[in-house]
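To make this tangible, we now present a fold written out as C-alpha cells:
***
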Amino acid sequence: MSFANDIRAAFSRRDNALSQLLLINVLVFVVLLLVRVTLFLVTGGAVSLVSVLEWLAVPSGPMTLLTRPWTLLTYSFAHTDFFHILFNLLNLYWFGSLVREYLGDRKLVSLYVLGALAGAALYLLAYNFIPVFAGRPAILYGASASVTAIIVGAATLLPDYTFNIILLGPIRIKYIAAVVVLVSIAGIDGGNPGGEIAHLGGAMLGFLFIRQLQRGRDLGRPVQAVGDWVGRLLSGPQLRVTHRGGAAATAAPAARKGSLPKPEQEDIDAILDKISRSGYESLSKEEKQKLFKASQK
C-alpha cells in the first residue's frame, strides 16, 4: 500500500481523530520543509519561507487578519522547527489519548480547534492593547495553544491520573499541567511572547471546556456542527431509502433505540466526577460502558 493510500485510509475513518490531527501536523511540516528547500535552491535565499508562512500564521495586525481569516485555524498546524513539532506531537499524543478515551473523538477535535481560537484571540488582544506589545509586528504559528488546551483539559478531567516520567517516576498530570502554565507565564518576557500568551489562552479554554462539560454544557457543539456540515459536503448527496408497510418499517428503529439506550447527562457527570476523584480504574463495568456510549454521540 502506498503512502497516499495510507493517508486516505487514515482520513476515511470517523473514529480516528487523534491520528488525523497528528497526521495533518506532520504533512504540513513536510510541505513547509520542501517549500523552504525549494525556495533556497531557486532563489538562493532571496525569498524566505516567511513569505509563505505568513499565509498560514496569524498576523498581529487586525487589518491584515481581515484579509486572512483562515489563519485563525491554519496556524495551529504550521511548524518549521523539528523540536517544536516533536514536543507538540508527543504531548498531543499522550494527553490527546486520554481525552479521546474518556470523551471521544468529537470532544478531542473541539478542544483542539477551540484551543487554537482562544490562543489566537488572547495573542491578538495582547498585541493590540498591551502597550509593551502594541505596534510590534508579529506572526503566530504552531499547535502549542491547541496542545496546551488538551493538556489542561485532560488535567481538569483527570487531575490524579499519573504518567511515568523517565528519571522522575509517576507524576500526576495536574502537576504537569501546572508546570506547563507556569513555564508559559515565565516565558512572556522572553524571545517568544506571542507564543507564550497563546499557550495561556489555550490553557484557559481547556479548563473552561471541561468545567462546562461537567455542568452539562458542551462548548464544542458549534465546532461539531461545522464539522458535520463539511463532512456532508465532502461526502456528496446521500441516498434515502423509505420502507412501506407498518410493522416491518417501524419495528427496526424501535428495536435499535431500545437496544442501546443513551445514558443521561446526570449519569455522565457523576461518572466524570468519580474519575476525577478516584481514577478510571475505579469505575464499574456498567459505568465504563455508559461512558463509552456517551462518547459515541
In short: Residues 241-262 have pLDDT under 50 and may be disordered. The radius of gyration is 22 Å. The chain has two domains: 15-229, 261-297. The longest strand covers residues 162-165.
